[in-house]
Amino acid sequence: MHEDRCHRHVNLGAGFDTRAYRLSATAHLPVWEIDQQKNIVAKEKRLNEIFGKVSSHVRLVAIDFDHEDFRAALSSNGCSSTGRTFFVWEGASQYLTEEGVRKIFDSLARAAPGSCLAFTYVCKDFLDGRAHYRWDSGHKRFVATKVWRFGLVPDSVEGFLIAYGWDLIEDVGYDELARRYIAPSRRGLASTPVERIVYAEKRRQQPGYGIEQAPTALRTPCQTDQLISWCPVGQKHFCWRAQPTYSTTRDRPEA
Ligand SMILES: C[S@@+](CC[C@H](N)C(=O)[O-])C[C@H]1O[C@@H](n2cnc3c(N)ncnc32)[C@H](O)[C@@H]1O
Prior knowledge:
Rossmann fold; 2 domains; three-stranded antiparallel sheet; disordered C terminus
């Protein structure tokens, strides 16, 4: 974790993640753990049982991502909106609607440049039923029951992130993670190709949120060295090199 460059750690859908209570490298950072009310209440109770209190460097914040803006929840819980943040969002995006996921990215789009994000997603073909990855029981348990609702196509992740002002640094499958981290520890943990993990960094230059429709003369087809992406604010595609050059009104791409 880039604890040296971030001022705080925000764990989205933290559940019973214990990073904040055991990693010495991040012990000096303030942490906000966000989850559903019932999990926040349960975690607070458990922390009180174990440590006698919730550690002073951690704030537990209740939210429903599908309906609430996490930035507003952070702000009313003492988290300033300035300064670089390390966001972790692990094992949780699949539980949301696409609207809920986009709501999170709308907020992430406003993160300070240089912020970091590690998040996991489930492959969309598993949710569509086009691939079961030899995990029929998982498909029956999570997809058929609609417990898991959101997924991404690995090839679309970079464009999806760019649209919100984040640069993809790495998108790796759990098999690769197992090779890197589980094998050296000689532990026998299983990994799955259904879920992948992304590391991204907030672009230092903001994309063209809110740019005006450019004069028709400027609305030429994208060149290959330009990026085209979905702009969540203003709901337009736009292209830019160093600066936004023009916007178009093409169809919104698939997630
Ligand atoms: C599988 S757990 C992952 C927990 C933790 N991040 C980890 O990796 O151990 C998924 C978490 O997402 C949270 N979650 C799911 N839907 C949510 C929603 N609509 N709003 C807030 N949290 C939600 C759940 O409460 C749960 O804690």
